[in-house]
Amino acid sequence: MGEEITQKIQQLLLMHDTIPQEVIDKKNIKLGLRNADGSGVKVGITAKGTCIGYDMIEKDGKRVKQPLPGKLFYANRDVEKIISGLELEKRFGYEEVVFLLLSGELPNETELEQFKDEIGRRRKLTRAERNILVQEAENYNQIYVLHSAIAHLGRCDVAADSSNLGDIINQCINIIAKLPTMITSGYNFTRFKNGGDLIMVVPDEDMCTAENFLYMINGEKPDTYDAMLFDKLLILHAEHGGGSNSTFVVRTVASSGANTYMALGAGVSSLSGHLHFGSDQSVIEMMRAMKKKLKKTDREKDVRNYILSILDKKSGDRSGQLHGFGHAVYTISDPRSIILKNYADEYSRQKGRIEDFHLFAMVEEMGSEILSERFNTPICANVDFYSALLYNLMGIPDDLFTPIFAMARMAGWSSHRIEQRQEGKIIRPAYIMPDNYLKEYPLNRK
Ligand code: ACO
Predict the structure, then answer these.
(1) What residues does ligand 1 touch, defined as CB less than 6 Å away?
(2) Looking at ligand 1, which residue's alpha carbon is closest to its atom 24?
(3) pLDDT digits (tens, 9 = 90+) for 92-109
(4) DSSP H or E run through 389
């Protein structure tokens, strides 16, 4: 009976919810907040971060995209330079980047030490916060655990609904500090619930975020190279401008006056989608399945055919997506992917898995070529592609890939949540009804 009425609703809504493309064009509707030329509709201004992947130029009387090599800036600093600077000085940098995103300026030495101490000190969970994770141990997806945990964190904060700027900054720093502990503890509780060993690790106040996270997963102090590489991964995922789906969601929710926990939790919800960041886990699953299918001979031909069959929904998860490729802004290249590819080359050699790197590099080359040809626009590997390989080489479980993204991006989301509070305007775009809907309808259908 219930199924019958559901089917009826489905049948009716399919008639009404599918608005013809000609109506959308005639009404000049910017679906997906995109202009007809593919560029994003400008709906805000931010000092936090920006990415560049194309320029708009006049060609034959039309405005068209001119693809450019990708660039990414955090508070006006070139991310490639941030990474190369840290590499040169052989030091960790995630906390410094968090400070930069929150405040708009790099900290001096004393400020950085104070900020690191503060993050370390706030890492530990209270009993109430730990209980949230125990309750969530049955949840099958770690990103859903994280979503619930952030909402419940609000329950543990007496000033949760305060609109005072100082309280909001405090809440953001608190969440940034506690998230790694919540992710690793949540994962360890779930592992135990599923029959694994119970690993209970107390966070280390003196380690930096990257070291502490790896330590909390394995219960052992991590190798310095691994921790520094993980630190770079966190930095490269920390921010991506206001147009990123999750960041826009955070800003939209915050703009209604919702509290920090609700706004940042909404960012996690957005992130769970496979068109956004949930993709890095899909990359490793896709590559694993591909590897199984490849024969020893004529690998190139096999890889090409496999990519084509993924796009034709005959292989992989049948979504038709080549995971880890494409981006709403980047065209020719994603600067994060270029940096991560170099690390993946070096790290896979260290781990004795250079063959895996070679397969990734082959898929990257062919995937970009095939997609660009098929969709008649330059499409490159995105940040998810090589980060999936790097996490896998580090021995990080697949289902932590997306939570790690959330953990890193919490810095960017927090900075946008605060900036949105300062801006103070509720985000409220317009929707219209197609003309025929504006006629009066009788309430009962015969
Ligand atoms: N696999 C299959 N088709 C793709 C892919 C892909 N990896 N990338 C782009 N396309 C298709 C798009 O669906 C679009 O098709 P359409 O013209 O029929 O609508 C066409 O290529 C052109 O796409 P773009 O305009 O360049 O990009 P768009 O903004 O539409 O899509 C997106 C961007 C959703 C990220 C897309 O590239 C995609 O689905 N990628 C795979 C999932 C993924 O890796 N997501 C992570 C993105 S990075 C991040 O969020 C951190």
Answers:
(1) 38, 275-277, 279, 311, 320-328, 371, 375, 377, 379, 382-384
(2) 328
(3) 999 999 999 999 999 999
(4) helix 383-393
